[in-house]
Automatic annotation (TrEMBL):
Transmembrane segments: none annotated. NCBIfam families: PepT-like. Binds 2 divalent metal cations per subunit. Keywords: Aminopeptidase, Hydrolase, Metal-binding, Metalloprotease, Protease, Zinc. The keyword Cell cycle does not apply. GO terms for molecular function: alanyl aminopeptidase activity; metal ion binding; metallopeptidase activity. This is Peptidase M20/M25/M40 family protein. It comes from the Bacteria. Its cofactor is Zn(2+); a divalent metal cation. It comes from Carnobacterium maltaromaticum LMA28.
Amino acid sequence: MLEVNEDRLVSRFLELIKINSETRHEALIQEYLKKEFSLLGLTVEEDQTSGETGFGANNLICTLNGNPEIEPFFFSCHMDTVAPGNEIKPVIKDKTIYSDGTTILGADDKAGIAIMFEIIHLLKERKLAHGTIEFIISVGEESGLVGANAFDVQQLSSSFGFVLDTGGPVGSITVGSPTQYRIEAILTGVTAHAGVAPEKGVSAAQIAASAIHQMKLGRIDAETTANIGFINGGVATNIVMDRLEIIAEARSVNADSCEAQVAHMIETFERVATEMGGKAAVITEKKYNGYRFTPETNVVKIAAKALTNIGIKPNYQVSGGGSDANVFNGKGKETTNLAIGYEKIHTVHEYLPIAEFTKAAAMAYQIVEEITLN
């Protein structure tokens, strides 16, 4: 396997996670990244989308120019983290990196950014005559892929790329990821005094309860899920609730199944509300498109060959979650998402085995070599 500079890789990661960058507050990490990529000789550009997104920084495109005869491609990561992600204090034990248990670790996705830096160092040291590589680092991924959604892919020279943002052992290649919809239902009943004349009221809470009871939720089939995530309503216990808001989601790797589930949820809210003497206003929003690849899809073939070349068997996975790869695919840039070793993300128990981390860096470098030489 390629000799990755483990000390350099880990040192960079530890430096990155000590920079506060909870989602919406990415300004500090953005400034660090602009400086460090520039020092390595890359052209660094901001996309000026912070005015649109309301987030603390812009997406970055850092370009490592190369041989114009070789097809350009991109790597992508995100610079934000979930909370609690400030003042992270890393602990290394048994060749694994943890936080001190009061915060997340931030390997999602600063491990990916550290790998980007290591790729650049390795390319310079090994003097590989690579093509142009674009490193995209987004904001707001943890807030619903906000940065990637605002990003204009027309800025890119690349037609395909690889997101470094999946947990689990190195070797996993994401070949399927769901379409996701957000569903907001505003249920309206009739107010009345709950103690004096409850029979004159129509409870929005009862409408919601009946609709949810009749609705298909949870695991719908092997590819489709739906969930009620948020319910809010009511003013006081002595008032029949006349307004209640529900926020839900539906997602599926099969786009038709996703559309069918959304239609079912809309129909159930509207029908039950009407039957019970109330009303339902349902608003839906597609958050991102899904994608489905085969082992013969170009980015999958490249990643699989790179893994095989470093002695790791490719593992083709269908994911139940979305990532920036969904957005890039939806905008016409063929993209897969690759596992880079971190575990138990979005919890204070998150950790990163150093052995997997170094394998991930070797895989990413091998992708560059595979594209360069073939």
